Amino acid sequence: MLILGSIILGLLVGSFLNVVIYRLPLMMEREWKDECRLILELEQEKSSQDETFNLAHPNSHCPNCNASIKAW
After folding, report:
1. Residue partners of 56: CB distance under 8 A and separation at least 6
2. What is the pLDDT of residues 8-23, one digit of tens each?
3. In 35-69, which positions are buried (b, 16+ CB within 10 angstroms) versus exposed (e)?
4. Could you give the maximum distance between any two Cα atoms of the chain, in Å?
């Protein structure tokens, strides 16, 4: 049971870290661009205002075909 529990926990942590490693730099870049536009008094991009992008949203999807990735 200990080995099986360790494997499952490792898979869960690894999956979460994969999302963080992929999305965190993109989130920081979007925030940086928005702050630069605000400082330079430039017009905001509609795509960055309308689209929610964080660790929870949007759901995971295939980068090639945009098919949603199921939890299982």
Report:
1. none
2. 999 999 999 999 999 9
3. eeeeeeeeeeeeeeeeeeeeeeeeeeeeeeeeeee
4. 59
